[in-house]
Structures are given as structure tokens and as C-alpha cells.
Amino acid sequence: MSSRKIVVKLPSSRQNYSSWAIIIRCLDELIALENHKLASYSLYVFMYTAVLNHLTGSSRSGLDAGRPVVPGMAELKLDALVSPGRAGGEVYCTILNKLNVHLEGILQRAMELRREALLEYYSSQWARYASLAKLLGNICVHISTHWVKSTMGGRDDIYSVPVLAITRWKSVFVDGLQRADQKLTNALLSLIASQRSGESINSELLKSILASLATLGRSGGHGETETLDVYEEVFETPFLDDAREYYRQCAKFIAQGPSEACQKAVGVGISGNIQKVEEIGRLKVES
């Protein structure tokens, strides 16, 4: 992959453009990047400055037709705010809308995959998306530190930009997969079933997805507190139910007096289950 930095192409100086136009252009550029480490410093600075200008009202050229019309403002009850609070809502809802569109796109691709191919896709997209969330958090720090906690201090359903990105991943991508016959859960259990049968699996792939799920549960003011709710719902509870049924079948099988080879195969499966239970315990302690 090329290490060339990506430079945003802004309108020429002869064009009439505003901080709002720069925000939209830079946001589209950022979301489209395959590797967010390649985001140029100029792209970072352009958007950081444009967000600040939009919040403070120091740049209003190009807004002759009035304030930007941003979908979602009414649903979040932000349309009644007056500037500068309204300006923060405009940026916030624009980020939310564009993340939703991006996530719907990768969800559509994921729906064509299953089992390990789905898990590999999840892992690669999560790594890219987590990087995007961090970058947006740095660029939109004024939204997170001032607008969210000051103007919207009484609203626990309004999040800092990095947390907003995480909640969208869960609501759009993970919930979308789960609505399709528990697609993510089944892929995880399928991988573990392969290990039970003695196959070699990519344990790092499994760990990366479980670590992702462990960050998605949120509670408290502005969702700042991580919980294991999503991890437990998507993986832990189904895994323990599946393991319980596996042990029941093993006990029944062994009671029938199978051969030594069969007993060894059962032992491999039980060992794999014990290893996963131990990993669950470590993950909960670390969280």
C-alpha cells in the first residue's frame, strides 16, 4: 500500500466557499480513506479550523441562503437551538448522518459473507473505523469538550464524537448483522465449533472481534462508561448456552462407551471450551 499522504482538494480561491463547505468536503475525504494514517496534516487542519469557525460564527460566507439544512436535527430536538448551540448541532448531526451512510454500505457488503469470511471482514473494517473515530474525535474536540458537555450537558443521549462513532457502529453495523439471523453470533460460534473438532483457527481474529464487542456497550452521562452488555449479548451468553449443550451431548456420548479415539475427540472439544471460558474471565477482569 502506498504511503502517500492524501491531500484534500478544496475549491479554488475564486470560488465562494464557507467553513460549512470545507467541513462537508473534508468529512467525505476522511470517511473515504482506506488508511486514516495517510490523512494529510492539511486535511486535518482544514477541517479542525472549519469546525471551530462554524461554531464561533467567524466564517459565514457561502451561507447566503440561510443556515444549512441538516437531516436529524428535529429528531434529536436540536432544531430549536440558537447559535452557537445550533451550529454544534449541525456539525454533530452531519457526522452522525455520514457515519450512518458509510456503515450501511459496509453492512450491505457484510451481508454477502458468512463464517470466517464475515469475521475477517468485520475485523478489518473495525480497525479502519476505530481509526476514523479517533481521528474525528481529535478534529472535532471542540464539539466533544464544549458543545456536548456545556450546551448539551443535560442530554445523556448526546455523545462525544468518538463515542458517537462507536454507538453508530453498534446500532447500524452490529445490530444489522444480528437482525439477519444472528449472523455475527453464528459466525463466532462456527469458528469455535471448528476448534472443537480439532481444526486450527485464527485465534487472533477471534480476540480482535471480542475486544471490539467489549467496547461497544455504553452507559452513564454521554455514554462515557464502557459496559460489557453488547459482548455478553452477541457472544458470551450464546457461547455459554452452546457450550452447555455441547457438554450435555458429550456426557451422553461418553456414557455409551465410545472408542478411545472418540473420547480423545471429545476431550479436544472440552479443552477448547475451557480455554474460551478462561478468555471470557480475563476479558471481564481487564474491562
Automatic annotation (TrEMBL):
Belongs to the cullin family. It comes from the Eukaryota. GO terms for molecular function: ubiquitin protein ligase binding. GO terms for biological process: ubiquitin-dependent protein catabolic process. PANTHER family: CULLIN (PTHR11932). It holds the Pfam family Cullin. Residues 20-264 form the Cullin N-terminal domain. It comes from Hydnomerulius pinastri MD-312. This is Cullin N-terminal domain-containing protein.
